[in-house]
Structure formats: structure tokens, C-alpha cells
Amino acid sequence: MVDIGKIQAALRSEGVDGWLFFDHHRRDPLAYRVLGFQPAEHVTRRWYYFIPADGEPKGLVHRVESRKLDELPGEKIPYSSWNEQVEGIRQILGGARRVAMQYSPNCAIPYVAMVDAGTVELVRGLGVEVVTSAELVQHFEARWTQAALESHLEAGRRVDEVRRQAFALIGERTRNGEKVEELEVKRFVLAGFAKRGLICEDGPIVGVNANAANPHYEPQEGLTRPIGRGDFFLMDMWAKLDRPGAVYYDITWTGFCGAEPPEEVRKVFTIVREARDRAIARVEKSVLAGETLRGFEVDDAARGYIASQGYGPAFTHRTGHSIGQDVHGNGANMDNLETHDERRIVAWTCFSIEPGIYLRDFGVRSEVNVFVGDREARVTGEKQMELVIV
Fold it and tell me: In angstroms, rounded to a whole number, what is the distance separating the alpha carbons of residues 206 and 389?
């Protein structure tokens, strides 16, 4: 159940008059998760729920679905007609002039942009300034509990074991002059996950040579290549424990089948590793010093180094993403490319750091997970320091 007091404290801290939740046809899963309820029936009519920074919350419900918000505290005002709806919104807002909604200016953070433009226009038409709820969502959606952290660490131990075995499989096959299909390795990983009580929605990525240069390549039936001697390969895998509330662990490692990888491969790996470690150091230093750090600044630390080495255009995605019960969570992303993410990095959140360089014949990415605690930041699993030779 929703903790109104905690939300109101966060609203006062953010300097807004309240948080207006809205949904129609279950378009906004964030609203249900933050408010801590799930309607048993269809949501065929619009509902609104306003939590002011001070005072009692109020809801607005259609008479056809008048019990929709019964689980939530506060008065519920019924409406049927469109003009009753507009007046009802005015009434529940109670004179608020600056309210947060699941809205993102210019859709800069699409994970939060759940409210349609027309509804934002409707609220603004009442003389109310609508601001993004991105920081609020992060506070209530992206922060982990101790149990979540422990589930992540345990998932990491199990995923790392599967990763080591998958690399060993590739090495054993290729050293004997055989080849192993990308798809076979993918299935090996998934079987290893299942055996260890891990689940994932999709993946993993197993890419050889040029396929490793496609950040979201995934082998499938009819779309797979063999890995053999002299080949470079990349493996990106993510999974969580098969239990309620568990959160993901997400890593990317790279390897080479043979005694000596090409010099360019070693060079690019070294640059990517250094970019990763500079981003990690940026987080660690700021958290230790108690400084405010925003997602785009972490991206700058990695991207700036890769650009200084002449590979800037080959780094085609953000440096990292929030991690939660979904592999791509709703906290701050380490991003100053795809978006300019100004959200603060807050305690008890986790995110990936995964810079990459993608060339014509191969691509290198090195991914770790970084957890930020109250006074420290740390990489939560094994960190690849050298290209794996198998």
C-alpha cells in the first residue's frame, strides 16, 4: 500500500505542490507500482489521483468504474461528463499551481513519458504548471531494498559461473578444430540459467566478429554463425533469481579463439576498458565526496575518453542504464548521447556501465553493474581486465 507520508516528504523536497497520477487502459504501469495497487478489472475509463505536498489526497473516478481507487486513501469524486471531468480535476488539485506527472519534456526520458500530450494540455489549461516526475519515480521505483541487493549479488554469482562455463565451451570446441554455433552457446547459457534458478525475458547476445559490432544482435534459428579459431566473440547476458522482487544482473564480456588476437582488437579492448574504469571512478569519487552526480556526467567520463582516442563516432549508445526488476529500470541512465539525462544518481540504486566501440569487423563492449549505497559505490561482480583467450 502507498505510503502517503513518504511521497509528501519527497514532494516537498522536490519543491512541487503535488503529484497527479492518471491512467486509462493501464497505460501507466509506473502509477500502479508507485501507488501500490492493481485493479482487478479493466480500466476502461479515466481516473486521476492527486497527492498534495500537504493535506489529504483525492481521487477522481468515472461513475461506471466508481470503485477503481477504493484501495487508496482519500475522498473519491465521481464524474460522468467531460465537463464534470474538467471540474473534477480542478477540484482535486485544490489550488495547486505546480504538479508532477509522468511526463518528460521533449520525451527526453521515454521510460517516464506515460501521460499523453492531450492530458498534459488539459491540466495546463487549468492554469497548472506540469513538471516531470522523473526524479520522484526514481525515488520510489528505482531504489533497492537490502533484499533486492542480496538477490542481485546472488544472481551475479550464478551468472558469472554460467559465463565462465560458456567461455570454456567455446574454447574446448575451437581448440579441437571444431566450431560452435552462436545459437548453441545461447542455448547453453539459457540452460545454465534454468538449472541455477535464473530467469530472463530475452537474450543472451552471443556475437562473433562482425555480429559483435551489432549492439543488439541476438542469434536465432536461421540467423547464427559459427565461432572458430581466429574469431573474436562477445557475450552479453542478463538474468535474475526466479523469485518476487528479484533484480537483474547484466554483464558483457569478450574473448578471442586463438593464441594471439589481432593488435587492433587488443587496442580497442584496452580503450573500452579504460573508458569503463574512468566512468566507474567518476561515480566512486563523487559518491565518496557526497557530491551530486547526474547521469550525463558519467556518460561524459567514458565518452570523452573514447573520443580522445579517435573512436568517438564508433560509440553509438549511452554508457549505461538503470537496473531493477526489469533489466532496463526506471532510474537515472548514464546518458548524454541518446538523451541528456539530468537525473541525480541516488543511494540504493544500480546501473550498468558499458561503453563500446563498434567497427566493421568486430565490436568491443565491457559491461559491469555499479551499486550506489549510502556512502560508497561499488562494482557488484567480476570485472573483465583482459581479453579472454580461449
Answer: 16
136 and 154 housed in the same domain: no
Residues 249 and 185 grouped into a single domain: yes
Please, which residues bridge with residue 360 across strands? none
Domain span holding position 120: 4-141
CA neighbor of 155 nearest in space, from 274, 243, 229, 84: 243
Q: What is the pTM of this model?
A: 0.92
Q: Report the CATH number that the domain containing residue 351 is assigned in CATH.
A: 3.90.230.10
DSSP 28-50: -HHHHHHHT---SS---S-EEEE
Do 99 and 243 belong to one domain?
Answer: no
The DSSP letter of residue 245 is T
Looking at the structure, do residues 114 and 208 belong to the same domain, yes or no? no
d(C-alpha 326, C-alpha 156), whole Å: 15
> Is pLDDT at 273 greater than 80 in this prediction?
yes
pLDDT score of 42: 86
- Contact between 96 and 11 (Cβ < 8 Å): no
Please, which residues bridge with residue 48 across strands?
A: 22, 60
pLDDT in tens, 133-166: 999 999 999 999 999 999 999 999 999 999 999 9
74 CB contacts (<8 Å, ≥6 apart)?
A: 49, 56, 57, 58, 59
Number of domains in the chain: 2
Same domain, yes or no: 253 and 183: yes
